[in-house]
Amino acid sequence: MSLWCKQMASSAAVLHFPFFNLSKIPRARTVTAAAAAASFSSSNPQTLTLTPAQTDQISLYVRTLLQWNQRMNLTAVTEEGEVMTRHVEDSLALISPLKRSYASHCRSRADDDEDAPSLNLVDVGSGAGLPGLIFAIACPSWKITLLESMQKRCLYLEHVVDLIGLSNVEILRERAENAGQCLEFRESFDVAVARAVAEMRILAEYCLPLVRVGGLFVAAKGYDPQEEVKSAEKAIKLLGASILELCSVESQGPLGQRTAVICLKNCATPKKYPRLPGIPAKTPL
């Protein structure tokens, strides 16, 4: 590992959390978010069914998000039900196409559970923990890394992971451009996912250097991302990947149908990518 990567790795805040007994987590005083989560998981065939404990965890996440949102800018949404429809359900809806694509194109270990492989996944630009924290709750066999550069958001993520009692989450405080150039993280994840971070050309440079050859890059996009995706084809190919599919996912939120853009990592990303912090956004590939 280069000196730069050693310095970067030592300064990055990687936080590990012990398991907390779910029975000690207080139940939500209001059932709005919990009821919405339970209704969604039972009625939408695109997602797995949540257990009562997972539903309670999501309810606790939503309430904590709104409490912290009064002190810092985590979301423009201020009502529990709207957080569920615009954020949580959107995140849950990504799980089915992600699992299906991974099972079809990326499985390499015969002993993995086909329905719940032990994925090593990074949520790039995690922000309020979307979709990474929702994935961690819904898929406890997955190892989730929340990559977030802002310290105050990392403090929030640390608090909510601790409060919910998630043992499968790590928080990495670093820019994606730096993490992608460090041997500890470069091409080490089965899947990189990003939601509401940047346009596809920029997002590809943030995410693909972190994905192992044979892994997936999943971008959560809007109803009609075809033009954005087409403009990113050259960048995606340059970074060692190809577009696998654009998968429509139904959202119960006001924005309606959404799209999961799924890319397959075919070969190693050239060493010069990602470029220095800020360059991908200023000069997209």
TrEMBL record:
It comes from the Eukaryota. Keywords: Cytoplasm, Methyltransferase, rRNA processing, S-adenosyl-L-methionine, Transferase. GO terms for cellular component: cytosol. The keyword Repressor does not apply. One of its GO terms (molecular function) is rRNA (guanine-N7-)-methyltransferase activity. The keyword Chloroplast does not apply. InterPro entries: rRNA_ssu_MeTfrase_G, SAM-dependent_MTases_sf. It holds the Pfam family GidB. NCBIfam families: rsmG_gidB. This is Ribosomal RNA small subunit methyltransferase G. It comes from Asparagus officinalis (Garden asparagus).
